[in-house]
Specification:
Elements (H helix, E strand, L loop, with lengths): L2 H19 L4 E2 L1 E7 L2 E7 L3 E4 L4 E7 L5 H4 L4 E6 L5 H6 L14 E3 L5 E3 L4 E13 L2 E13 L8 E3 L2 E3 L6
Antiparallel strand pairs: 1-11, 2-3, 2-6, 4-5, 5-10, 6-9, 7-8, 9-10, 11-12
The structure holds flavin mononucleotide.
């Protein structure tokens, strides 16, 4: 059996896996941290709540991420829940070779110097609770130490089938 023949079924499987998951809509967040005074961050849809007592949240980050070597050294991180008006920000924080915190990104330092992005509907400040490698991603679990919520936030930004969108109430 040639290499191509052995490789193609698993490649097709990977494509099918990706194609299937494209149908799962997910809210978009930006994870941020301050590492030796330098802000770092990336766009993620793998964010989820985990536990109420203690209050835990989590996200997964690819082992291959160039942000991970810095982020893994941060004891605290921030989660910005993006609104439907922030797709540009989501794009910027997913592109390599870009100063993600340079203008037009508007941000400030919050509790524990964690960078907070202006305009997010809510920010969670977390201290790292657990980190483990699962497959080719690191699972990062954080304990929420502070929450900051906008009074009247815009609807959330959602990623679905490779595109950004919003949500509308059924009634
Ligand atoms: C909508 C969207 C969701 C993403 N979700 C994740 C995620 O949950 N985990 C992850 O590791 N990368 C995710 N990415 C990719 C990272 O944002 C991107 O690969 C990364 O920022 C590339 O730069 P890096 O080398 O700094 O990680 C997502 C990208 C987009 C556009």
């Amino acid at each position: 059996m040639s290499i191509a023949e052995t490789a193609s079924p698993s490649l097709a499987e990977a494509d099918r896996f990706r194609a299937t998951l494209r149908n799962h809509p997910a809210g978009v967040v930006v994870i941020t941290a301050s590492v030796e005074g330098r802000p770092v961050g990336l766009t993620a849809t793998s964010f989820t709540s985990v536990s109420l007592a203690p209050p835990l949240v989590s996200f997964y980050i690819a082992e291959s991420s160039t942000t991970w070597p810095a982020l893994r050294r941060a004891g605290e991180f921030g989660v910005q829940l993006l609104t439907e008006e922030q797709s540009d920000l989501a794009d910027r924080f997913s592109r390599r070779g870009e100063d993600r915190f340079a203008a037009p990104t508007a941000w400030s330092r919050g509790p524990s110097q964690v960078p907070l992005l202006d305009g997010a509907s809510a920010h969670l400040v977390c201290s790292r609770f657990d980190t483990r490698l699962i497959g080719d991603h690191w699972l990062v679990v954080g304990e929420v130490t502070r929450t900051l919520v906008l009074d009247d936030p815009r609807p959330p930004l959602v990623y679905h089938r490779g595109a950004f969108g919003g949500v509308s109430a059924l009634r």
